[in-house]
Write a structure and sequence with these properties.
45% of the residues lie in helices and 13% in strands. It is an alpha/beta fold. It has four domains: 133 residues, 3-Layer(aba) Sandwich (Rossmann fold); 182 residues, 3-Layer(aba) Sandwich (Rossmann fold); 86 residues, Helicase, Ruva Protein, domain 3, CATH 1.10.8.60; 40 residues, Arc Repressor Mutant, subunit A (Orthogonal Bundle), CATH 1.10.10. The protein has a six-stranded mixed β-sheet with strand order 1-3-2-4-5-6, with helices on both faces. A five-stranded parallel β-sheet has the order 8-11-14-7-15. The longest helix is centred in the N-terminal third of the chain and has 22 residues. The N and C termini lie far apart (101 Å).
């Protein structure tokens, strides 16, 4: 069975003709475009090459060419095409494996119309999002932001952060689950709040949850809530974080700290978009946007079995990485000045600038604690500083780790200065005898005299 309408964006490949017609009817009844229907998987690639499909729905188990093999071919030749695999219940592990090959999502038979339409809409939205991002030029800077005021609390001048802000603007307009990665102290929660404020949920609540503070015994109670009498001490019903965030955004910080059993419970909530309070049989719908964050290498965690692949795919529909401060050194001094203004005002001190030697020291330091650490450095320095300029005297005692950077900064000089100092040391060692000094230096007497004249180093 083949049905190929002109200029359709959706291709469906399944050897079950009845299922093809059922999916077609579901799409048309929802006002979506007529899909291309193919029952023989051997014909699919020729169609993909001829037509500009945005999305392909592929049955996992088919004769001739399996859904996984077809997925691999599509992603190899046309990586921009989004793919959803359709699978039976006992093939879910294979479907998750297919997502490693580039599938956007998987659906389990029997297909539910609502979930099918949500998955298709999300996949098409991601296609358009990715297509838009792919044509962005690397030269887009802060001036091209549509909502620059939204980022006012996230001080940045480095070009790498302009790219982060552009991604945030693009992602904020969608309903995708988001994953923010970055080292501790880079500002992941701050970016999550900005994403919420730029989204269509901005007038609703933002609920931050630090996952590493939830124990195994408190996890379900804190996230899902409980019914009255669910356990000893449950004298009244309680909403969990997900219900509290209904209609808004929930921010799950340090998501990779969850142990595997709790990851499974979270996955079910994300997939079903519903929950049960502890001790309750009443199902409650979950209408929240999830933004998760981690300071770990989440792909490594997944590969080594510490984080579920299926949960990673559900959370990481869209991914934004915030560079470390040492990777965006153009932000160090603007951030330092920002923190100086904040803490000087807070402590009622008239400190208006940062001494050049402090700037040099800050630029030399690696800041393992990133922006948070820089803020602490400046806050402590403001407390110690007596004058109106932040000087080195207010910094060395602040952090033992900063001392090597300060020492290094003091010792480093330009090549011209190093030469001048060396000449002076040789002259001192020879008692001011320029002929002997020139011989030791390996230069002519006239050259030495010229260098001394240029430095104002003495009479002829």
């Amino acid at each position: 069975m083949e049905s190929i309408p002109d200029k359709t964006a959706i291709l469906i490949v399944d050897d079950d003709a009845g299922l093809l017609m059922s999916i077609r009817a579901t799409l048309l009844s929802a006002g979506m475009p007529e899909p291309a229907l193919v029952s023989d998987s051997r014909m699919a690639m020729d169609l993909v090459r001829k037509h500009h499909f945005h999305l392909a729905l592929l049955d996992l188990i088919m004769p001739n060419i399996s859904g996984v093999e077809l997925l691999k071919q599509i992603k190899h030749e046309h990586p921009s095409v989004e793919c959803i695999v359709i699978t039976a219940v006992d093939e879910v592990s294979s479907a998750v494996q297919a997502m490693r090959y580039g599938a956007y999502d998987y659906l389990v038979k029997p297909l539910q119309a609502e979930k099918l339409l949500i998955a298709i809409n999300n996949a098409l939205e991601r296609y358009h999002l990715r297509h838009g991002i792919s044509v962005l030029t690397e030269t887009r800077g802060f001036a091209e932001l549509k909502h620059p005021a939204a980022f006012k609390d996230m001080v940045a001048e480095d070009a790498s952060m302009a790219a982060v802000f552009h991604l945030a603007e693009t992602a904020a307009a969608t309903e995708y689950n988001l994953l923010i990665t970055g080292e501790t102290g880079t500002g992941k929660e701050l970016l999550a709040r900005i994403l919420h404020n730029l989204s269509r949920r901005s007038s609703t609540i933002f609920v931050p949850v630090n996952m590493n503070t939830l124990s195994k015994t408190l996890f379900e109670d804190e996230l899902f809530g409980h019914a009255k009498g669910a356990f000893t001490g449950a004298v009244s019903e309680k909403k969990g974080f997900f219900e509290a965030a209904r209609g808004g955004t929930i921010f799950l910080d340090e998501i990779s700290d969850l142990d595997l059993p709790m990851q499974g419970k979270l996955l079910r909530l994300i997939e079903e978009r519903e929950l049960y309070r502890l001790g309750s049989t009443v199902v409650r719908n979950v209408d929240v946007r999830i933004i998760a964050a981690t300071n770990r290498d989440i792909r490594k965690e997944t590969k080594e079995g510490r984080f579920r692949q299926d949960l990673f795919y559900r959370l990481g529909t869209f991914h934004i990485n915030i560079p470390s401060l040492r990777e965006r050194r153009g932000d160090i001094l603007p951030l330092a000045k920002h923190f100086l203004d904040v803490h000087a005002k807070k402590n009622r001190k008239e400190i208006h600038s940062i001494a050049p030697e402090v700037c040099d020291a800050l630029m030399e330091y690696s800041f393992p604690g990133n922006v948070r650490e820089l803020g602490n450095v400046i806050a402590g320095a403001v407390l110690l500083q007596k004058g109106d300029v932040l000087t080195l005297s207010s910094v060395p005692g602040l952090m033992a780790d900063l001392a090597p950077a300060l020492k290094l900064t003091k010792s480093l000089v330009s090549l011209e200065e190093a030469e001048r100092r060396h000449i002076q040391r040789v002259l001192e060692a020879t008692g001011g005898n320029r002929t002997r000094a020139a011989k030791i230096l390996g230069i002519g007497l006239r050259t030495l005299q010229r260098k001394l004249r240029e430095e104002g180093g003495g009479n002829q």
